[in-house]
Write a structure and sequence with these properties.
35% helix; disordered C terminus; Purple Acid Phosphatase, chain A, domain 2; extended
Length: 383
């Protein structure tokens, strides 16, 4: 059996709404020509409650699909247990089969597959959700077993901690695990774990320059092929400047846009500007014109990198710790203003806490009063 794997079409995505519909339709209709069924790994829609026009167009697209579609909800569609999510609504419209915490079977040409679908849950509950579903899951003899999920994966995200792990998923014994949520395509576990990625750009990151499309998995050979779809080009570029004037930055931006437009007149462009402006200029003062389908991330710093390095070098030469630097600044600010006690003693108590500081000040104040009495003598009484 040939299984198409599609995910994260994000229909109704406001920034690139037309792209989302056009590219989703290309992927789904192409998949329905080349595969026997389609597995949809969540985030059909971009929001939990799509506009009626978005729902109408989604239904229209899925009605053109010629093979069965089995889908789960993603994090963008997840609603509370007693509420209807938009993926389930498509099932009510009869254009796909919605799965959540249940399994179903499908037979084609004397071959049977069994699909356990688990829609997105918060990452901290994902492990428990899968374990609970596995308790109820009864593998059918001779069936090709598939797990369909939409979750973050610990090994595939920075600083992963509470997410599902590849090691745990592999221990479940499925023949194929399909996951959505992550927008870049990924294959792990010797080809048994597949993430198709999104069909539309949503995050304007460098990784999204990767080709969009879907996978086809062959249950006979247990091999998969990535099928690219036609998409609008996307360029992510970084511009580096140093001690630059406003005009120099504007010219660098203009030249880069012209260069990229020559490669794709209708392309989406994301530019990140790094570096520093001339002394006295502020990044807020830089007025970059609006360019159609161009998104600019201004990371300019008014203090040059050389100046920062010079500060670090000076600190190292003075061999001052953070504590010493703070004490030095306190001494400079209190010089000539506080003479009754040592500023280093005050600083030490400030580090300890408010109560310790107050007790220290009261003690020093009492000491000062006693010293005053010694200087002027005791007051005598008349006989």
């Amino acid at each position: 059996m040939r299984i198409a794997i599609v995910s994260d079409t994000h229909l109704g995505y406001a920034r690139f709404e037309k792209d989302a519909f056009v590219q989703a339709e290309r992927a789904l209709l192409d998949a329905s020509e080349k595969a026997d069924i389609i597995l949809f790994a969540g985030d059909v829609f971009d929001v939990k409650i799509p506009k009626l026009e978005t729902l109408d167009e989604a239904i229209s697209i899925f009605r053109k699909v010629k093979v069965p579609v089995f889908a789960i909800h993603g994090n963008h569609e997840r609603r509370t247990k007693d509420q209807v999510n938009p993926a389930k609504l498509l099932s009510s419209a009869g254009v796909l089969h919605y799965l959540h915490s249940v399994s179903t079977s499908y037979e084609y040409h004397d071959e049977k597959i069994q699909i356990l679908g688990i829609g997105n849950v918060p990452d901290e509950y994902a492990d428990e959700a899968v374990k609970n579903c596995m308790k109820r899951f009864v593998p059918e003899k001779g069936a090709f077993k598939i797990l369909l999920i939409h979750q973050a994966i610990r090994e595939l995200i920075p600083h992963g901690k509470n997410e599902l792990s590849l090691e745990y998923l592999e221990s479940l014994g499925f023949d194929l695990i399909v996951n959505g949520h992550i927008h870049g395509k990924e294959i792990r576990m010797g080809g048994k774990f597949i993430i198709p990625g999104s069909t539309v750009i949503t995050q304007l990151k460098k990784e999204e320059m990767e080709q969009k499309g879907y996978f086809i998995f062959d249950t006979a050979t247990r091999q998969s092929d990535f099928i690219p779809i036609e998409c609008r080009l996307f360029f992510f570029e970084e511009i580096e400047v140093k001690d630059a004037s406003s005009n120099e930055v504007l010219e660098a931006v203009r030249n880069k846009i012209e260069e990229l437009r020559s490669r794709g007149p209708d392309a989406l462009i994301a530019l990140k500007i790094n570096g520093a402006l001339k002394e006295g200029l502020s990044a807020k003062d830089l007025r970059i014109p609006d360019y159609e389908h161009v998104f600019i991330d201004n990371r300019l710093d008014t203090k040059s990198l050389d100046a920062k390095l010079e500060t670090i070098r000076n600190l190292r030469q003075e061999k001052l710790s953070v504590r010493e630097l703070a004490l030095k600044e306190l001494e400079e600010k209190t010089k000539g203003k506080i003479t009754s006690f040592d500023s280093s003693g005050l600083f030490a108590k400030l580090v300890e806490g408010a109560d310790e500081t107050l007790a220290y000040l009261e003690k020093e104040n009492d000491k000062l009063k006693n010293e005053g009495k010694d200087d002027h003598g005791e007051t005598s009484t008349g006989s």
